[in-house]
Amino acid sequence: MTVEDPIEFVFEPKNAVIDQREVGTDTKSYARGLKGALRQLPHIIFVGEMRDITSMAIALTAAETGNLVISTMATQSAAQTVMRIIDSFPQHQQSQVRSQLALTLRAVVSQVLLPRADDHGRVAAREMMFVNQAISNLIREDKVHQIPNVIATSLREDMIAMDDALIELVERARITFDVAYPYFEDLEKRTLLQKRHYRIAPIPEELVLESGRVSADQLDTALHSKTDPRERLGQALVRLGMLGEGDVVELLAKQFGLPIAEASRLSLADPEVVQLIPEHLARQAGVLALAKRDGQLEVAMGDPLDVVSIDHLRALTGCGTIKVSIARPSDVREAIDEFYQQIRTRERVGEIFEKLDLTPGSEGEDDVDLATLRQQVEDAPVVRLVNLMLAEAIDDRASDVHVEPLRDRLVVRFRIDGILHEVMKPPKNLQMAIVSRIKVLADLDIATRLLPQDGRLTVHLPEREVDIRVSTLPTAYGEKVVMRLFDKTSFSRQVSTLGLDGTLLPLFQRAIHQPYGMILISGPTGSGKTTTLYAALNEIRSVHRNLLTVEDPIEYHIDGVNQVHANAKVGMSFARALRSILRQDPDVIMVGEIRDAETADIAVKSALTGHLVLSTVHANDAPGTVTRLVDMGVPRYLVGSAVTLVMAQRLVRRVCERCREPVIPEPESVAVLGEDA
């Protein structure tokens, strides 16, 4: 007899009778179906999945009374299957359950389907555990964690560990090493296989090895991973996450004796000098002019070996000497974007203010005629000024724009890297026209000035799309407007640029490349949790995997990722979206935030059923994240089985490399950080 949910295959054998029952159609639950099956005196009982304590207890009793019980569980190994059954029961019953398992359990097969090397379907890698006396004793004595050791040393009894199954499939060319890589538990076995799988060639990159940042095996992997002969070793190491851009810059600086230009130095470049190099050439060569003195031009480049561009600069600027500093290519690109945008903005601001009618007028809001206001809102100078404000905010990577009316002036401030900066002071008599123009764009009522309003608008740029949430608030001197910006441009940030130094980066990368489990990022609002998740998705996305997200709101678009907007107003909650996502055959699921018990329960169970789940939780530290899940009602044993990594983070402002000075810390700081900090 079978109890299934749903019945996936119908059996009609000629030499046997199989009675198949479906949960929801023939019986209300697995437990009820099992009880009914036992009354039919079956020889064999197949349970589609043991999901709860009741069905587990009935299955154990059935096995004790002479029935052969076959079932499935959403676990990742044989040992974990045994642990899950035991941990599902209350503490006072676990001793009895261990005894029942030691007597009745005959075998556990843990398997995973992997894509074949020839791209013709998938092949199963199986861990096989047959319960012998040694394993029976371990179960009875509560030493289940030692089961993998017994499996690994019991080959004569036809047992096989998952690592050995993977090795066999790779050696037989059934799967590739890259496919097997994330499933290994024994890192030593994985390394030995890697050395056999990749040919060890002479390594000419002594400088990389001498730095101690990359091992010989890692270097060899990088050399063999290059499919484009034009790709340099440094680029390959950065692509694989073995080195950061900063590491490569330091190695090149050491090799050629060049100074390093940090991002802080690039930000201090003279705008007048920057203009000496046309924007198209600066972008093409990846070069930024920093300073000019005594006929010598100082530039920062990501590629100091580009002698053609250096000669071109010499001829273009008339400078006989080009002093080259090496910088991270990403820093150079960002600086080019910033400076040349400032140059264009400065030109536009001058044009706009020349055309503005600055006739003094009343500052009181109630004195303005609505018809006059509507006309001002559509005036070209006001339209251009608001457009410029938004364009500047987007280009400066501002998270918020504040339009603040004060007693005698109007101030526009941008929040950049968590700090508000004053960027513009439009004339006070344009206050209502500017605020009303923003309200028109956000589809708000310009006649309503004494009540708060909320709206939104989308800015479409040639290669970018920015979603803006608008909030107005009446104050003593007029309406204050705050606009929150969400850049919906395709996300391109990599995990290697998140600032995970030392051992953190390889640990995080290993976790996100696992095929299953739950990864949680915690921290307060504005601590970069979502950015970290997006970077992880950006790294692991592939045409061979189905990635889905549920978010509120969708902050960035990622090519190749199916993103769902959770909207409680229309009934699309996180939990409801998650349930639907599970029916979409996902490999990776990203949940914007785990807010409630139902979402937490579904997310944890998704991680336990072979999916990789990434999410955020509002907690102050990593241990508090686990406690938060437990407080939401997730059983501790499920949290322990599902969660593979918890990372708590904060965003802090960096010290300027150029102008920093040594200081004597306050005694309170020493007490908190320690004398070695």
Automatic annotation (TrEMBL):
Gene3D superfamilies: 3.30.450.90, P-loop containing nucleotide triphosphate hydrolases, Type II secretion system, protein E, N-terminal domain. SUPFAM superfamilies: EspE N-terminal domain-like, P-loop containing nucleoside triphosphate hydrolases. InterPro entries: AAA+_ATPase, P-loop_NTPase, T2SS/T4SS_dom, T2SS_E_N_sf, T2SS_GspE_N. It comes from the Bacteria. One of its GO terms (molecular function) is ATP hydrolysis activity. Keywords: ATP-binding, Nucleotide-binding. One of its GO terms (cellular component) is plasma membrane. Residues 582-596 form the Bacterial type II secretion system protein E domain. Pfam families: MshEN, T2SSE. Belongs to the GSP E family. PANTHER family: PROTEIN TRANSPORT PROTEIN HOFB HOMOLOG, TYPE II SECRETION SYSTEM PROTEIN GSPE-RELATED. This is Bacterial type II secretion system protein E domain-containing protein. It comes from Eiseniibacteriota bacterium. The lineage of its organism: Bacteria, Candidatus Eiseniibacteriota.
